[in-house]
């Protein structure tokens, strides 16, 4: 009788433990409030089924602008998921956070090496920031920092110019190898390439015309192909995506130039880890377009209409991010104060999850782990 009772208790304990594991957070999704009265990171815990639940709000040690930044990449994370980095666009500073079992810990807040930072990227222990200084009476520039072992930031270079003083910059990102930096210029239809040496010092830019108009967000594919959204100035149903090969010298060559998605204002871009699928959010038509990415970087629209998933009437989808396991796509929809999640199917299809609310209309940036 005692042995039977022990077995029953052990089985019950195992079932409880399994149940707890099923509800334990599998990761997290982060966005920025971008508030003028104190910028903060909003944390959402990610469950194994992809569903998000509201978590902590952590001060970023500065202020936002209170309105859209016209950017991609207001948040960045290192490859090991040890540190999170954020822009304080209203304070011209950037913040670093340690990511731990108990959440985020603010580690450093430093000047951004320019005015109004809007986008960040990190490779190894080197971080670069894109400053939209022309929006506040200065010049558009980039600046670099080294990241110490405990997450502090030390300047490498500051105020490196883009192709001109005022270019409408949208995003900065390292390529997969970490030896090139890419910046998209919306106002000039240019793609800038900086080479980066072993000490993290950027040189450039090499200025390349984009295949489409208003190059905005981008991501790198599995084989370092550059995948860029072409917003075409927000023209009705004029949106497209383009893919490129980028040489080590900074020259850009189109693979698939301006493949239409038949939607309006595609701006933000996310790609799965295996490089098979890429998604762009269409801000003005409230939906997401998916593309398959060929081995050589060619693009093909997943759905003839261009609508792989809807984000809801009036949603105005902005930033997009994919979880580390590439099972879930998340989209920031501040028009409806939500983060909308989708499960990614084997064929690239998207199935909507229950959205999580509490997002201010000023929010910017979205990143998942």
Keywords:
single chain; 369 residues; mainly beta; 5-stranded antiparallel sheet; 30 strands; 6% helix; globular
In short:
The chain is mostly beta strands and 369 residues long. The chain has 1 helix and 30 strands.
Tell me the strand percentage band. Answer: over 45%
What is the number of strand segments?
30
Euclidean distance between termini CA atoms: 48 Å
Radius of gyration: 21 Å
Per DSSP, the total helix count is 1
Low confidence ranges: 7-23
Structural class of the helix and strand makeup? mainly beta
* Inertia-based shape: globular
What percent of residues adopt helix (DSSP H or I)?
under 10%
Mean pLDDT: 93
Sheet with the most strands, sense and barrel status? 5 strands, antiparallel
Characterize the structure shown.
There is one protein chain. It contains one helix and 30 strands. The protein is mainly β and 369 residues long. The strands form seven sheets. Strands 20, 21, 22, 23 and 24 form a five-stranded antiparallel sheet that branches. The radius of gyration is 21 Å and the shape is globular. The model is unreliable at 7-23 (pLDDT under 50).
Topology:
Blueprint: H1 2-23, E1 27-32, E2 40-46, E3 52-59, E4 75-77, E5 83-88, E6 93-100, E7 103-111, E8 117-123, E9 126-132, E10 140-147, E11 153-161, E12 169-174, E13 180-185, E14 190-196, E15 202-209, E16 215-220, E17 226-230, E18 240-246, E19 252-260, E20 266-271, E21 277-282, E22 287-293, E23 299-301, E24 309-310, E25 320-322, E26 328-333, E27 338-344, E28 350-352, E29 356-357, E30 364-368
Antiparallel strand pairs: 1-2, 1-30, 2-3, 4-5, 5-6, 6-7, 8-9, 9-10, 10-11, 12-13, 13-14, 14-15, 16-17, 17-18, 18-19, 20-21, 21-22, 22-23, 22-24, 25-26, 26-27, 27-28, 27-29
